[in-house]
Amino acid sequence: MEAVRASAAWVASRSSHVKVDMLEVEKVVDKIQGNVPKVEWDFEGIHYFDDGPLTVQYLFVLDALNFCFWPDKDLSYDHLASGLKLALEKDKTALDADRLQSYTGPQLRQLLNWPRPLPIEEERVRLLHEVGMELERSFGGEAANLVKSAGNSAATLIELITRHFPGFRDHSLYKGHQVFLYKRAQIFVADLWGAFKGQNYGEFHDIKSITIFADYIVPAVLRELGILKYGSNLSCSIDSNSEIVPGSEEEVEIRACSVYAVEKMRELINKKFGKQLLSIDIDLWLWSCGVQNMALSHHRTLSIYY
Ligand SMILES: Nc1nc2c(c(CN[C@H]3C=C[C@H](O)[C@@H]3O)cn2[C@@H]2O[C@H](COP(=O)(O)O)[C@@H](O)[C@H]2O)c(=O)[nH]1
Prior knowledge:
By secondary structure, the protein is mainly alpha-helical. It has one domain (about 1-290). It has helices at about 1-15, 20-30, 55-65, 75-90, 95-100, 105-110, 120-140, 145-150, 155-165, 185-195, 220-225, 230-240, 250-275, 280-290, and strands spanning about 20, 170-175, 175-180, 230. The strands form 2 sheets. A two-stranded antiparallel ribbon has the order 1-4. Strands 2-3 form a two-stranded antiparallel ribbon. The chain starts with a helix and ends in a 14-residue tail after the last helix. The ligand Nc1nc2c(c(CN[C@H]3C=C[C@H](O)[C@@H]3O)cn2[C@@H]2O[C@H](COP(=O)(O)O)[C@@H](O)[C@H]2O)c(=O)[nH]1 binds near residues 41, 191, 194, 212 and 215.
């Protein structure tokens, strides 16, 4: 994911609302002595897994909808993961490509057992239809075929996903430059890798090319650690739960600086402690810390990308 790494670094070098504090990166790395706590994929025990193609279909649908839970204060990622899991356990055809194309908002709510409209529900429905339609048109209806056609390359899989499914094209413009963050496409690869433990549908020879997933939890943890420093206006907006406009300099800087900071952290750990750590390992550690800390205030942007 050179495009993600390069554009995140480009933003970080010009950023004015967000700064990456390299001294703090070093302090954190020294404090943990290069030992990033290992967090198991599905540490919550909420995901569907049957070791076969249906798991791939589940993960692809999951990550097509893996964004913007915060507008409903009772809703979280866990509801989506466990809701889709239960739906699949009740009816193995619930996520078939033809079914995906016909869900309405109320039916999606029912599928997830959620009592009220989901945040940005119309977009969630549109994205489900897009996934169903394109899987049927180009991949025999199965996300497993999409994964197979990437030939065990994470970078190829991300390229295929973003070429075929416009909803995964997580780009923005920053000071005239195109910035690529590909949060949901990358997290799908990481979910396959985690769920299948690097085997079968989860085998990728270039898994180290994946960066962290620029969501709204990891930046909040990096800020809490002192690694990200926000300017006073941005700090006030976030602490008062004001919405940050999608595509604004602030929003792009928060996400891109998070990717950049963790890349620096990984490089430092690997160099100083002779490790072969992946950004995914750091991501899951930071994310799991973030979701367990209810007091963290995170940035709020209405977005279908994260
Ligand atoms: N960077 C990063 N962001 C992640 C995840 C995951 C879940 N990954 C699963 C994979 C294996 C584990 O067992 C996890 O269950 C969700 N998110 C993002 O968080 C936000 C949801 O927050 P809240 O509203 O509090 O539920 C939202 O933007 C969502 O897209 C991750 O791993 N890394």
